[in-house]
Amino acid sequence: MSKKDGHSSLYVLSLTMGNILFGFGPVLQKFTFPYGGSGLLTAFYSSAFGLIPLFILIKYNHLSLKSVRPIAGKLAVLCIGSSGALLFLWSSYNYIPTGLATTLHYIYPMAIAVAMTVFYHEPFTGKKAVALLLVLCGIARIGASGGATLNPTGMVLALVSGFFWAFYIIYMEKSGLCEQPSPLISFCTTFANVPLALLVCAVTGKLVLYSAPCAWGIVVAVALLHRTVACSLFQIGLRRVEPVSAGILCTFEPVSALVFGYFLLGEAVSARQLSGLIFILSGIIVNVLAGKKRSGS
């Protein structure tokens, strides 16, 4: 049996927890907006601050940054997907609600399914198709809500970020980088985000200093939760969960973003969005159960 056959509960849990934190980070960063913050600025500051705990983890685990030299080319390609997804998605938060932006970003499960079937000829089972259909229906239900907030710029940015993330997930698995120590991979991708985010902030006039200490505390929290913990959990989960199933499981992120957006930001959640959440959770359950059956559990 292939290491990708079925799902190990621990790896599924790792992916799930990572995506819950991915959904929480964007909601948390909106608390910096009254102090001059923006999605782009948080992307820059959280990446910069995130390098510190990641470097500590590298030293704690007796790893060396020199060990990435043989895979530097692969890492450079991976960073394109990581940086593109982060900057496009977090830029969209300036135009549309976090829940909607995160949901539109989730075009990528479908993009992954198409790419894996067409380019890698991987089997696409009936249960996997049902699971994908359910989560896409949920995404469509949520994305169609709140017509007054459907800013075209924000929607395009969120959708483009999804294609970058689809590339990231597929390349992480196919290149074998998911088997590398997660602190090293997370450090390299985060390091690549810093100059790019800085450049974009400077060009768009978003590069400012926060006007309150609490705003700095928020970006430090985002750095720890998003860049350190969530990214590491996500990479670990990809070691044993195939890309299509990973994409389906990752739809926990819009669920998390909508829930946290409702409780922390007071963002409205309509009946249509609630039905979308039910579709998404149903698809995730179908996917997990199908994985357990294949693994014989």
List the SSEs and their pairings:
Elements lengths: L8 H21 L9 H22 L11 H21 L5 H7 L3 H11 L7 H18 L8 H23 L7 H23 L8 H26 L4 H7 L2 H14 L5 H25 L2
Helix content: over 70%
Question: Which class best fits the helix and strand makeup?
Answer: mainly alpha
Question: Strand-residue fraction?
Answer: under 5%
**Average pLDDT, to the nearest integer?**
86
Low-pLDDT stretches: 1-6
Describe the structure.
It is a single chain. With 297 residues, the protein is mainly alpha-helical. It is built from 12 helices and no strands. α4 crosses α7 and α5 crosses α7. The longest helix is centred in the last third of the chain and has 26 residues.
List the defining traits of the structure above.
single chain; 297 residues; mainly alpha; 12 helices; globular
Structure in a nutshell:
The protein has 297 residues and is mostly helical. It is built from twelve helices and no strands.
